[in-house]
Amino acid sequence: MRVLWFTDWQPPAVRRRLGLPDLPGPQAWVDTLADRLSQEPGVDLSIATTADRRLPRFTDGGVAYEVVPLPAPRSRWARLAADWRHQMTSPEAVSRGAALVRELAPDVVHVHGTEGVFGLLAPRVAPLPCVISLQGILQAYQRLYFAGRSSAEVARLAASAQFLKGRGVLHRYWMLRRQAVRERDIMRSGRWFIGRTGWDRRVLAAVNPGAAYFHCDEIMRAEFYAARWPAPTRRGARIYTTSSALLGKGTETLLVAVALLARRGRPDVRLRVAGVQPGSEVDGLYRRAARRLGVDERIDWLGRLDAGGIVAELLAADVFAYPSHVDNSPNSVVEAMLVGAPIVASRVGGIPSLMKDGEEGLLVPRGDTAALAAALGRLLDDHDAAVRFAAAARATALRRNDPEHIVARMLEVYAAVMAHAGAERTAGAAPDAATAAMEVPA
């Protein structure tokens, strides 16, 4: 089986060839699945991505890599103009991607994510089957991007130096809106999709009722399967969370909850925040919020962490908090479940599909600072409940995110899509996505 993947994130092997540092975290599940899938007998895997310069085709770890060259603006002024125009990935990427498909003639094309440009390949490469993975759902993200912020605070962002350079929070939002429109086009024009939660399935059905939906979970990095939360007998109040350069992760909600806990008899409460680049505009927003709330001395800002650093934080934490305003299947929650750390998260998007409230952790309404503080306080105070929830969550994650099962499932999905597309070509039949969806039950 010849499989060609398209991804907008540069895999580590490509970044090494380009002389760039690794980026821990983004689409790590793509890399782990590639490692496993490339070892399967009869699978010939190629991965295509973009770069600002051409690279010859190369093989690394049993995977062939292709780079679609999309030169970046040459001058500072050209870059500034492109940033202010909110220029997305060049449409040339679709044409060059389609040409690569014709050259390599794979049996199936798999596009990872609807956020980037390559999802537009699906109608261009027909009748060759092209399956698209649902990851973040930008149509929902852009609606909740500024959740929890006042209009005055948002307006002040226009006075920042980053804004004048065409970068920063506001420009990222305007870019996100354009990407959300493109994502909707991708969902409408695609026929076969892979998702992981009841929420992403409902979003797809609303946009494209005739699309085929296949459930397939993701393989996390090996470090999270090997580690196990030690269920410390000490009664600490160390909370660990992850955020990002995107707003909407609910970090301010968590800062307020920490302030509430401190005022309600938890003077030892401490919050450790990973995922925010030090010195960035978002980092400044969060630090100012912490100072306003009087909790800045209780916060440790960790920056971006690799898998080993995240595992160490989870093992040392008393509770993992994920107060996002919107998310599909956040890897941070899955990773915490695999390690077996106690979890408090928002009841949003696909998170209820990942973790059972009251059995594997606690879910709270998004933006509800009082409910978040109460849930955190419960797990900090009730050690037995924290241990029980953590053990149940770990058992669920080890079963759901089992690498061998996921590889087998992905191959089943590819086989079903290929068989359906082949039957259509042979019979000249009209597309019947519903039949394709039923061929491989989840």
CATH architecture of the largest domain: 3-Layer(aba) Sandwich
The amount of beta strand, in percent, is 15-25%
Radius of gyration: 22 Å
Secondary structure class reads alpha/beta
User: What is the residue-mean pLDDT, rounded to a whole number?
Assistant: 90
Poorly predicted runs are: 433-441
CATH topology of the largest domain: Rossmann fold
Shape: globular
- Most strands sheet: 8 strands, mixed
Measured distance between first and last alpha carbons: 22 Å
Strand order of the largest sheet: 3-4-2-1-5-6-7-8
**Which CATH top level class of the largest domain fits?**
Alpha Beta
Question: Count of helices?
Answer: 20
How many beta-strand segments? 14
CATH superfamily of the largest domain: Glycogen Phosphorylase B
How many separate structural domains?
2
Entry summary:
This protein has helices at residues 12-17, 28-37, 76-84, 92-104, 121-125, 138-141, 151-156, 161-164, 168-189, 198-207, 222-226, 251-263, 281-293, 307-316, 331-339, 351-354, 369-381, 383-400, 403-427, 433-439, and strands spanning 2-7, 44-51, 58-60, 63-69, 108-112, 130-133, 192-195, 212-215, 238-242, 270-274, 299-303, 319-322, 343-346, 362-364.
What does this structure look like?
The protein has helices at residues 12-17, 28-37, 76-84, 92-104, 121-125, 138-141, 151-156, 161-164, 168-189, 198-207, 222-226, 251-263, 281-293, 307-316, 331-339, 351-354, 369-381, 383-400, 403-427, 433-439, and strands spanning 2-7, 44-51, 58-60, 63-69, 108-112, 130-133, 192-195, 212-215, 238-242, 270-274, 299-303, 319-322, 343-346, 362-364. The chain is an alpha/beta fold and 442 residues long. The radius of gyration is 22 Å and the shape is globular. It has two domains: 2-219 and 407-439, Glycogen Phosphorylase B (Rossmann fold), CATH 3.40.50; 226-400, Rossmann fold (3-Layer(aba) Sandwich). Helix 12 (251-263) packs parallel to helix 13, helix 12 (251-263) packs across helix 17 and helix 15 (331-339) packs across helix 18. It contains 20 helices and 14 strands. The strands form two sheets. It has an eight-stranded mixed sheet, with helices on both faces. The protein has a six-stranded parallel sheet with strand order 11-10-9-12-13-14, with helices on both faces.
